[in-house]
Design a protein that fits this description.
The complex is a heterodimer of chains A (about 280) and B (about 290). Helix content of chain A is about 70%, strand content about 0%. Chain A has 15 helices and no strands. Chain B is mainly α and about 290 residues long. Chain B has a single domain, classed as MetI-like (MetI-like fold), CATH 1.10.3720. Chain B has helices at about 5-10, 10-35, 55-60, 60-95, 100-110, 115-125, 130-140, 155-180, 185-190, 195-225, 230-235, 245-255, 260-285, and strands at about 40, 45-50. In chain B, helix 3 packs across helix 13 (about 260-285) and helix 8 (about 155-180) crosses helix 10. Classes of the chains: A mainly alpha (about 280), B mainly alpha (about 290). Chains A and B meet through helix 1, helix 3, helix 4, helix 5 and helix 10 of A and helix 2, helix 4, helix 5, helix 6 and helix 8 of B.
């Protein structure tokens, strides 16, 4: 009896430790975002604001020029998602369901991105985009990422499981490939397509690496760069209460998606088991 | 062939992806390799073949060697904690139930938060004077640290941030794998009166081995390629103590305009990661049980 009780206590302690380590800092960010300038700089540190200062958010909003960066974040993320749907879905359909010459070789080529890390080619990307005049443009920030080896790979794996008979029936009805994709493939594979696009959303929304490489001014910069603008180089001048408020605002859309799509994100990991590659690969 | 026939062929479906892949992945990689053997100046237009001089130059450069060593250390350090922590958390959180599902979601949250939000949050907590981490150290009776501002702890501080950010991802992948292990295996182990430890080492671990190989490889690759937190939190300092390969490439190329040397570093990065993947797969070939 007491053995069962102490096991339950141990388990409860385990949950408490995990939640404290992983949610603690997030809670602390939220808490500090409501503190006064004085309260974020005291010892011992305050865990909760003694009085609420929602005006930190107004200040962060204004100093970050929040609307400008939010617009860029939304635009670049949704353009990338739309582009991937147009480029990756037909490509994955062809590799999963069509027979053609050089198919294997071409598939290996398409998966190239999974092997070479983005971190090795960013300088050449910059040189290439300067040549095209794409630096500081929305197309420079999105078009290269319409192609994603990670997205194509996970779609192909799933498309292969859809029975050929269904597609044959459509072909007998003289449907074109585009019609087959739009009317049969996409609806039947919608769980994996949604999951893949959620991954694209997460990585594009959070992307700092490519934005810092492919932009030199504020025209198309996104929210992660706006946070940087709240951080003065001078360490003593950092106003953590405003910075944390900015952080919370930049995170909010992401967290909302996470809460709404919790299940899809988790099951996506089970299909793909390759989310990490998407982080290191160019595929955003 | 008529245009309409081309448009109806499967090649039309893959053409956009192939084109983007060639332009934005294959070409930059090829150019990186090419430029690593050349002396390139994009301003004056000078460009000539100089053989292995760039490679010789970076391998005698203390800053590059330091960054390379730091990256290797960082790669092993982060992987040595984030993968076992992830596995431990997964074993603890496997099975359904409200509190378990909730905790799973909580530990995964850092993975979907941008590195910049994570970086600013930890810079705040690692503040030497007012930060909460030093306060906690004080409560434990330990002396305060200067975290990011001290050359002996800066790399460690970045590693803590990376482990915190990636452990939840590893845990979720392992949970997914655990839920695919057939219940009969555990049932038969129970009938054989196997101890929990034996069950773990004879059933759970062997079944997980392919996914563990994947996690270790992915974790090493991403840790070795770390850039965001270095640039944002320390800029490689103090005195290059937290400088990593990718940040070295960035600085060499963008700030010092030494394209050839930067590209030689990039080629070393690609080769090193290829070796890491190959070694992991070779070791796994002997140990892992693929079904």
């Amino acid at each position: 009896m007491s053995g069962g009780l102490s096991r339950a206590a141990l388990r409860a302690a385990g949950f408490a430790v995990l939640i404290m380590i992983f949610a603690g800092p997030m809670f602390f960010m939220l808490s500090a975002s409501f503190m006064s300038r004085y309260e974020v700089n005291i010892t011992p540190p305050a865990l909760m604001p003694s009085e609420f200062h929602p005006e930190n958010y107004a200040e962060a909003w204004e100093r970050m020029n929040f609307v400008h960066y939010l617009r860029n974040s939304l635009l670049s993320t949704f353009i990338t998602i739309a582009g991937q749907l147009l480029v990756c879905v037909p490509c994955a359909y062809a590799f999963a369901k069509k027979q053609f010459r050089f198919k294997k070789t071409l598939y290996c080529l398409v998966l190239f991105d999974l092997i070479v890390p983005a971190q090795a080619i960013f300088l050449q990307m910059y040189i290439l985009e300067s040549g095209l005049g794409w630096i500081n443009t929305m197309r420079g920030l999105t078009a290269p990422f319409f192609y994603s080896a990670f997205t194509i790979f996970s779609l192909v794996q799933y498309f292969k499981t859809i029975p050929d008979e269904i597609l044959d029936a459509a072909r007998l009805d003289r449907c074109s490939d585009v019609q087959v994709i739009a009317r049969i493939m996409a609806p039947m594979a919608s769980p994996i397509i949604i999951t893949a696009m959620i991954f694209t959303f997460v990585y594009k929304w959070n992307d700092y690496f490519w934005t810092s490489i492919l932009t030199t001014d504020e025209t198309v910069r996104t929210l992660p760069m706006a946070i940087q603008n709240l951080m003065p180089v001078d360490h003593a001048a950092r106003e953590w209460h405003v910075i944390m408020a900015g952080n919370v605002m930049a995170l909010a859309p992401m967290l909302a998606v996470y809460i709404l799509a919790n299940r899809a994100i988790k099951s996506g990991l089970i299909y793909g088991s390759g989310g990490r590659r998407a982080v290191s690969g160019k595929s955003v | 062939m008529k245009i309409s026939a081309v448009l109806r062929s499967p090649y039309a479906l893959i053409l956009p992806a192939i084109a983007l892949c060639l332009i934005f992945s294959v070409a930059p990689t090829a150019m990186s390799v090419r430029d690593s053997f050349r002396s390139v100046d994009y301003v004056s237009g000078a460009d000539k073949f100089i053989g292995l001089a760039n490679y010789r130059s970076i391998f005698t450069d203390d800053v590059f060697l330091r960054a390379f060593k730091n990256s290797v250390l960082f790669m092993f350090g982060v992987t040595a904690f984030s993968v076992p922590f992830g596995v431990a958390a997964a074993l603890f959180l496997d099975k359904n139930g409200f509190i378990r599902n909730f905790t799973q979601s909580v530990i995964f949250t850092p993975h979907i938060v941008s590195f910049i939000a994570v970086a600013t949050l930890w810079m705040f907590m690692m503040d030497p004077r007012y930060g909460i981490l030093n306060y906690i150290l004080g409560l434990l009776g330990l002396p305060p640290l200067r975290w990011l501002m001290d050359s002996s702890t800066s790399l460690l501080s970045l590693a803590i941030v990376a482990v915190w950010k990636t452990t939840g991802f590893n845990a979720l992948i392992v949970i997914a794998a655990l839920q695919k292990i057939p219940a009969e295996l555990y049932e038969s182990a129970r009938l054989d009166r196997s101890t929990p430890a034996r069950t773990f080492f004879h059933i759970t671990l062997p079944t997980l081995s392919p996914i563990l190989v994947f996690l270790v490889t992915a974790s090493m690759i991403s840790a070795f390629g770390t850039f965001d937190i270095v640039k944002f939190m320390t800029e490689g300092g103090p005195r290059n103590s937290s400088n990593l390969m990718v940040y070295w490439i960035y600085r060499t190329g963008f700030l010092h305009f030494q394209i050839g040397r930067a590209m030689a570093g990039a080629v070393i990065l690609i080769l090193f990661l290829a070796v890491v993947s190959a070694v992991n797969l070779a070791l796994a070939g002997r140990r892992a049980h693929y079904q």
